[in-house]
Write a structure and sequence with these properties.
This protein has 245 residues and is of the alpha/beta class. It has one domain: Rossmann fold, CATH 3.40.50. Helices cover 48% and strands 15% of the residues. The protein contains eight helices and seven strands; from the N terminus they run E-H-E-H-E-H-E-H-E-H-H-E-H-H-E. Strand 2, helix 2 and strand 3 form a beta-alpha-beta unit. The longest helix is centred in the middle third of the chain and has 29 residues.
């Protein structure tokens, strides 16, 4: 008799799941037995590919588009996902922007773009998901910060502020939603993806004590761990090769 997978019977919604880390996370959750709601913004073709890949793995999947800077659009996303699958057990707030903006060059529109995508959207996604997760009996939210939220990057000032906000949001929501829902976060350093400029990795290697960038599978390992770590909430797991030291 085949061994039951870690996430069998659970439904996960991953924001920004059509591309990059969100895509990798969605596929890993399917490998672990979950059915997956693939959220995307404008990348319909890529989202369809992710759905196809998940279905090839023998899991159910559906893709839904939503502009996450709009609260009504977020609410519709979770209503549609709830109707389609009938439940929701895991929310992974993966979608984000990475906009360069120095202090004297930060415009209102640049500020709003960073804070709306990186902080407002995960908050209201969590709010919309909470009733489903509370009914689940094993509800989990995983937020994505990054080490910019810990170190602060002068060249990416609004971004760093938004990611610091994710850390505090994680701690507050962990209190707010306990004991029915656990809330944790991951703060990655540089994670090398196919097609990334080689200078990104070279610069990170110079600064990281472990002398390498992170691999996508190391992030997905952490996601699966946090979903299954039943005595952990309000924690920020830093995966950065020691850079924040």
């Amino acid at each position: 008799m085949p061994e039951e997978k870690k996430l069998s019977g659970r439904v996960a919604l991953v924001t920004g799941a059509a591309k990059r880390l969100g895509r990798v996370v969605a596929l890993r959750l399917a490998d672990e037995g979950a059915d997956v709601v693939v959220h995307y913004g404008k990348s319909a073709n890529q989202a369809r590919e992710v759905v196809d890949e998940i279905e090839k793995r023998g899991r159910r999947a559906a893709s839904f588009s939503a502009e996450l800077t709009s609260v009504p659009a977020i609410q519709r996303l979770f209503e549609d996902a709830g109707r389609h699958f009938g439940r929701l057990d895991v929310l992974v707030n993966s979608a984000a922007s990475f906009l360069e903006a120095k202090f004297g060059e930060t415009t209102e529109s640049r500020w709003d773009a960073s804070l709306d995508a990186n902080l407002k959207a995960p908050f209201f996604c969590s709010q919309a998901a909470a009733p489903y997760l509370e009914r689940s009996g094993c509800g989990v939210i995983i937020n994505f910060s990054d080490i910019g939220g810990l170190l602060g990057w002068r060249e990416f000032l609004p971004h760093s502020i938004s990611k610091a906000g994710i850390i505090m949001m994680t701690r507050v929501l962990a209190k707010e939603l306990a004991p029915k829902v656990r809330v944790n976060a991951i703060a990655p350093g540089t994670i090398t993806m196919p097609g990334d400029p080689p200078e990104w990795e070279a610069d990170y290697i110079r600064r990281a004590p472990l002398k390498r960038s992170g691999r996508p599978e190391e992030i997905t390992d952490a996601v699966v761990y946090l979903i299954t770590a039943e005595f952990m909430t309000g924690h920020v797991l830093v995966l950065d090769g020691g850079t924040t030291l």
